[in-house]
Amino acid sequence: METRITRLFNIDYPIIQAGMIWVSGWRLAVAAANAGALGLIGAGSMTPELLREHIRKARAACPDKSWGVNLPVFFKYADEMAAVIREEGIRIVFTSGGSPKKYTGRFKDAGMIVAHVTATPALAVKCEETGVDAVVIEGFEAGGHNGRDELTTLVLVPQTVDAVKIPVIAAGGIYDGRGMAAVLTMGAEAVQIGTRFAATVESSAHENFKRAMLDASPTDTFLILRKLIPARVIVNAWAKGILAAEARGASSEELLNLIGEKRTKLGMFDGDLKDGEIQIGQVVGALKEIKPVRELVHEIVAQYEQAVKRLENI
Fold first, then answer.
1. pTM
2. How many angstroms separate the CA atoms of 193 and 284, rounded?
3. Which of 19, 23, 121, 142 is the most exposed place for a label (fewest CB within 10 A)?
4. 306 to each of 18, 169, 192, how far by Cα in Å?
5. Three-class secondary structure of residue 235 per DSSP
6. Continuous segment of H or E residues that includes residue 258
7. In this predicted model, what pLDDT tens digit does every residue of 194-203 receive, in sequence order?
8. Is 224 helix (H, G, I), strand (E, B) or coil?
9. What are phi and psi of 128, to 5 degrees?
10. Whole-angstrom Cα distance, residue 209 to residue 300?
11. Is residue 70 packed enough to be buried (19+ CB in 10 Å), middle (13-18) or exposed (0-12)?
12. Measured between alpha carbons, how far is 209 from 273 in angstroms, rounded to an integer?
């Protein structure tokens, strides 16, 4: 299963555990790394001090495997987070949520490997021009914040592979080895998986959130906040209020007031399934069990091998 991505990150399998808010702390990242994938600490819901704590705990628990940090560049603490990442000597960083230009140079100067998450082939080309080592192309099936163009993974992957020379990592709507086989066939060299890793033993998601993932159907997610930064969430009472406000043409200011403070923490970390914002991907309807990360990674690899063997026999 060797690809440019497995060599770049020194991992056994071309699988990246996505850096997610309130879900992917050091325990999840370490579990993914120990299973042979690339684990990412999600900095987007942390303070700089908390990120430093998670980095140091991950390093103590997993000094010899590959893990890194995901940094949303639009985050209010992004500059401070970038400083922490450099000070702590992180080897791998995934940036997301805007242009990578501001941080790529300073991370590369510090000897880091940099990947950036984006949502169109044209933006992937711009990322390559900034000097990133790899690009994650994410379809709008994915949970959390999405691109405004609402392009799907199946459309994005081959077009992005044709547009750039750097390795492409596929994300959005991938949760098992069949999906991994599909996008690797199209030229991707790894997958980034979020939702499925959120529903693991080592995830820091609240138990209510984990149960909600298992109870969800394929039609229970929706894109909200298109006027601001589109986000895919489970439709609960709070999200229905947002959708109603958008339908009547609410202003950005009104929508921001409806969001309030720490809405994602309320839903994903504190477990308020009624009034919290619960970011998750469309594949949530396929989840049937909360598993340990090691078991999940080995299952994905076995499914991939079965899918490839099936293709060989057609």
1. 0.96
2. 12
3. 121
4. 24, 21, 20
5. coil
6. helix 252-259
7. 999 999 999 9
8. strand
9. -60, -40
10. 23
11. buried
12. 7
